[in-house]
Known about the structure:
Elements: E1 2-6, H1 11-21, E2 25-30, E3 36-37, H2 43-53, E4 56-61, H3 76-97, E5 101-110, H4 123-139, E6 148-154, H5 161-164, H6 176-188, E7 195-198
Parallel strand pairs: 1-2, 1-4, 2-3, 4-5, 5-6, 6-7
Helix pairs in contact: 1-6, 2-3, 3-4
Amino acid sequence: MKILVIGASGTIGSQVVNALSTAHDVIRANHSSGDIKIDITKAESIQSVFDEIGYLDAIICATGNIAFNAFSELSRQEWDVGINSRLMGQVNLTQIGSKYLNDGGSITLTSGIIADYPIAYGSSAATLNGAIEHFVKAVSVELPNSIRINVVSPTVVTESLAIYGDYFPGFNSINAEDLAQFYVRSVLGVETGQTFKAFAGN
């Protein structure tokens, strides 16, 4: 399979690449490095990437920025960080990328545990993660050519606890290597319209 992984150099994306690259042709995409550069906040960047690489079998998005701040302090600019990246970045990726998928291809997006379990400073993340999960459920019935779409919703990643751990007191973490298997399940399995909850006991 020919698979595009966006956010391939990140904590999650690098493990997704490791899990898939031994048996598949994986194209690594990042904002500023990799086989190809992409900015998911810009539709023209997304379009140019697919014009360059052509048809493929799977698209994985393991990126999407969100601002964290107290709700009373969140500026419109901070809201727009997540709206343009986590939400509309992945929506635009789906709309444009689905036209370049072979029959029976798949799209895998990323949300997060905050959609289900609120944290301090996480109102923007909760809102946008929830929105992308509802988007996946809704759009799954509209995609042509037997294309599937799912979203992976991880808890805090163990390798990122030094950076984000204080936001998630008492939450169980998941190793990035284990988390990558949920992306593998989405790409190689048969499910569609699903949110794979990569957490338990929180």
